[in-house]
Specification:
heterodimer, A: 357 residues, alpha+beta, Rossmann fold, OB fold (Dihydrolipoamide Acetyltransferase, E2P), five-stranded antiparallel beta sheet, 8 helices, 24% helix, elongated, B: 310 residues, mainly alpha, MetI-like fold, 13 helices, globular, disordered N terminus
């Protein structure tokens, strides 16, 4: 077990810059998820920690030791790949014991380590099979088994669940979480799936275009997104965002299109007349009968998910999404009034994209 | 309607020609291919095999009679044949072995990305495009001390006591065609092995690097098992081709000196087209065919076991 310190790490392939200086400290035993869209540099960062990519500049320390110039094998980390990367001509037992055999570990120790891991991952009846004869979920478990037999300083996961179907992914997500609670090992997990990030992480690192956008606990990122990118990326259905102008009058309001004025909880720390983006999550939008206080809107689309209902309402020339756990709130063609509770409103500076207040 | 009712037992009342056309339809479709295969492959094969059991000498107008196994009895006592068989093993073994070794090294080098790899690949595969006859002539000249540099180089390095032509030295002559053959055949192994190498998932090497495998251990536990089926099939193909491949020998040494470079294939060529004894040549060819068939069955069996292990 060890902490991992990343200091101003950059990566460039020729003139193409992939990472523009990442600073991050991962505590001993912490489960950190790097999340972001494809090409944001999250996998590159993980591979640099593993030693599979050179570090163009900056410093990575594992357990206090600078590992920039160490080979992957000397960094004492284990990695689970998206494709599992199991050795196809070796049995499950051989796959799991390969690293120990290379390190010339004593036979009894190897046997104890792999049988322990096999029990933990319920792989015991499969030990003599080859990867070809396993299902996707079983291969995934073997890949994790291969990682845990060595008790490394840190586990690195590179989108390990992307190749599984939705149900199995949910199941394995739980297994990974339980495994982490059992072993308490420092883990870094890369994914583009924000649900995986929310459910697994102690801390989430949201990345975009080679920059860290926000670091924090899952609920921090959800409740107080630092900028428009994080606000839009976390949450499904995605947050509503409306551009408008901030007004200081009447205790702080936002003027949206078509003269609609939305009151805020209080004056925001920005100048009168600033172009702002008002964000509100669909589950916080209130939909009521007309005549109540609110903005007149026409229901244009109703999407039942079973779990709840997503309503699309047209108002002030925008599509306002609302999520309700109740069914039958409205049908297509209804005229309703929508309102935004003041304590649920997020305000962002449109020009810089960063949060106001 | 009435016709159909009056027809006893529902007999086919269509005109005879029409029925014939319908029945022969599938045969007519496959006929062009079948006729081609039969005329250019089966007929010559059967005639060729039949020569092995007949006395067929082109210059003897009374030859052509059936002589049973006489040719095979002669082969059993033919010292040149046994020498040629030994030479064939020597020639094939060294040629295939060296072609494979250098082909694998070349493929491993070309698998790594470097600047100008595309050009290097194209150049490395060039020898394969040279006609074997031309490459034989070229190498014969290179080994010739009058026009070629190689004997002088070997003499200069102290490997030879005098700049002689190794093609006229009974102990070394076989190495002339073998070197030419290795130069000419490396690209075949390089191309096929490179294709197999590039199909190995990169993740596996990365996983092994993290697991702590050295480059050699990665080669042994990932590259080799992945290449094994390709190696088995290419080595088999090349062995059969090279065992049958007399061009270089005929062009460079013509089996000499003193039959020291005579392989079975070139011996067949000599018997058939120099001595014009087609019967005897056919009999030798049949023996070679049998030996190669046994060999390929063994390799195919080996490959099946290797594939099953995956």
């Amino acid at each position: 077990m060890a902490s991992i310190d990343i200091t101003d790490v950059r990566k460039a392939y020729g003139s193409t810059k992939i990472l523009h200086g990442v600073d991050l400290t991962i505590q001993d035993g912490e489960f950190v998820v790097l999340v972001g869209p494809s090409g944001c540099g999250k996998s590159t960062l993980l591979r640099m920690i593993a030693g599979l990519e050179d570090i163009s500049s900056g410093e990575i320390r594992i357990g206090g030791r600078v590992v920039n110039d160490l080979d992957p094998k000397d960094r004492d980390i284990a990695m689970v790949f998206q494709s599992y990367a199991l050795y196809p001509h070796m049995t499950v037992a051989d796959n799991m014991s390969y690293s120990l055999r290379l390190r010339k570990t004593a036979k009894e120790k190897i046997a104890a380590a792999i049988s322990g891991a096999a029990t933990k991952l319920s792989l015991t009846p499969l030990m003599e099979r080859r990867p070809k004869a396993l299902s996707g979920g079983q291969r995934q478990r073997v890949a994790m088994g291969r990682a845990i037999v060595r008790s490394p300083k840190a586990f690195l996961f590179d989108e390990p669940l992307s190749n599984l179907d939705a149900r199995l992914r949910e199941h394995m997500r739980g297994e990974i979480k339980k495994l982490h609670q059992d072993l308490g090992a420092t883990s870094i997990y890369v994914t583009h799936d924000q649900i995986e990030a929310m459910t697994l992480a102690d801390r989430i690192v949201a990345m975009n275009a080679g920059l860290v956008q926000q670091v924090g606990s899952p609920l921090d990122l959800y409740d107080r997104p630092a900028n428009l990118f994080v606000a839009g990326f976390m949450g499904s259905p995605a947050m509503n965002m409306f551009e408008g102008t901030y007004r200081n009058a009447n205790g702080g309001t936002v003027e949206l299109a078509q003269g609609v004025v939305v009151p805020l909880a209080g004056p925001a720390p920005t100048a009168d007349g600033t172009k702002v983006t008002l964000g509100i999550r669909p589950e916080h939008v209130l939909v009521g009968k007309t005549g109540l206080e609110g903005i007149q809107a026409l229901i244009s689309l109703v999407e039942p998910t079973g779990f709840g209902t997503i309503l699309h309402a047209s108002a002030f020339g925008e599509d306002v999404k609302a999520f309700s756990l109740e069914r039958g709130v409205a049908v297509r063609g209804d005229t309703v009034s929508v309102s935004f509770p003041v304590d649920r409103i997020h305000l962002f500076d449109t020009a810089t994209g960063s949060r106001i207040g | 309607m009435t016709e159909a009712v009056s027809a006893p037992y529902g007999r086919d009342r269509r005109p005879f020609l029409r029925r014939l056309a319908n029945a022969s339809e599938p045969y007519l479709y496959s006929a062009p291919a079948l006729i081609l295969i039969v005329t250019v492959m089966l007929v010559p094969l059967v005639i060729g095999i039949s020569y092995a059991f007949r006395d067929m000498t082109l210059l003897d107008p009374f030859s052509g009679g059936f002589i049973g196994l006489d040719h095979f009895r002669a082969i059993a006592k033919d010292k040149t044949f046994w020498l040629a068989l030994k030479n064939t093993v020597y020639w094939t073994g060294y040629s295939v072995g060296l072609q494979f070794a250098f082909g694998l090294i070349l493929a491993l080098l070309l698998d790594k990305p470097f600047y100008g790899r595309g050009l290097a690949q194209a150049l490395c595969f060039l020898p394969w495009a040279v006609p074997s006859f031309l490459s034989g002539l070229n190498w014969a000249w290179m080994f010739n001390p009058v026009v070629g540099p190689i004997p002088h180089w070997l003499y200069g390095m102290g490997l030879m006591s005098a700049p002689d032509n190794i093609l006229s030295d009974p102990d070394l002559a076989m190495w002339g065609p073998i070197i030419a053959n290795v130069w000419w055949g490396i690209p075949f192994f390089a191309i096929t092995l490179l294709a197999a190498l590039q199909s190995i998932p990169r993740d596996l090497y990365e996983a092994a690097a993290i697991d702590g495998a050295t480059p050699f251990q990665r080669f042994r536990s990932i590259t080799l098992p992945f290449l094994a089926p390709t190696i088995a099939i290419t080595v088999m193909l090349r062995t059969i081709w090279i065992a049958n491949f007399a061009d270089l020998i005929v062009v460079m040494t013509n089996g000499g000196p003193a039959d020291k470079t005579q392989i079975v294939a070139s011996y067949i060529f000599t018997q058939a087209f120099r001595r014009l004894d087609f019967g005897y040549a056919s009999a030798i060819a049949l023996v070679l065919l049998m030996l190669l068939m046994i060999y390929s069955l063994l390799i195919v069996f080996l490959r099946q076991t290797l594939l099953k292990e995956r």
